[in-house]
Amino acid sequence: MSNVSIKIRVPATHRPQPADGGAPPRIGRRPSQLPAGATAPSLNVGDLERRTLRHFQLGPAAFVAAAVVAASFALPAYWSLLLALGMVWALAALGLVILTGYVGQISLAQAALLGLGAFLTATLAGNHGWPLPLAAVAAVAGAAVAGTVIGIPALRIRGLTLAIVTWGFALFADRFVFRIRWLTGGQSGRDLAPPTYGPVDLADARVVLFTLAAVIVAVAVVTRNLLAGRTGQSWVALRDSEQGAQALGVDVARQKLTGFAIASAIAGLAGAFHALLVPYLSVNDYNQYVSVMVLAIAVIGGIDSLLGPLVGGLIYAAGPQVLKDLGVTLTGSRFDLIIGAVLVLIVVGSPKGVAGIIRSLSGSEGNR
Question: Less packed terminus of the chain by CB within 10 Å, N or C?
Fold first, then answer.
């Protein structure tokens, strides 16, 4: 019987090269299985790095955050509260930008995690006397743990099936977790009297707005550094092709759970700020339908950009008041209907969201 050999030519630019110039390893081999002197294929390639950071630009987002803070001085006092709430929704949507836009995983439980952060902050600080910063840290940690648990099904399923499973977690939180009286106060809900630290009065929505703007910029800087490293490149490889990422040596399970944990921690942080802004925390503020709205905010703003969540969050929080000032009064359900219509138009006409439209108009989309 004759031996038949099949040769497949791979372009030289795509061949992973070992450090010592030996024979290149086969894609998919574990480091322990590589030939002597060979190293695992590297994810640190220029094209992957450019695609990772292409739309996650700090400059435009920092400009919008600074403009929002400056606008609070010129607008009536109630606008500070609306803008601060917009920043809360932006922070929650930023978690989905990381999870969906870069890791490629869909979650419809973000509002439930935001609510968990809010209730933990209010319960620990308001009912158990914890210092507010410590209560906020506990809220972030609790949301991260819960998000990791939610992410476990993502190890075996993806796409629409994963979205339905995370929706089920959000429904479970709404029907059971948020009915635990020691956590949420049951139907009576929770309230938190914002503390004062010297001259800093957290009962002032403008002070919370300033703090939120600084926190969002800080989270964005940390996230960008994460995306610029091997973790971010692994996420993008995983998003583009799970099988391809495995072949490159990416630990798919660890990267998925890391993405869920980080996105959930950001949602918990947003919840801690939400507890400071609203006089009364109700379980109805964090139901599964609100989770869909958070995803809509991320998609409308731009699911893979840093600017997108800011734009989407501000539109959602301040949109009704803007329309009212223009003489158009809408109930909450009608405004949600408008958001749904805008979501359909964005998905069909501009999948990159409002941020993508802004980049196209400025010419930056074509220059990258």
Answer: N
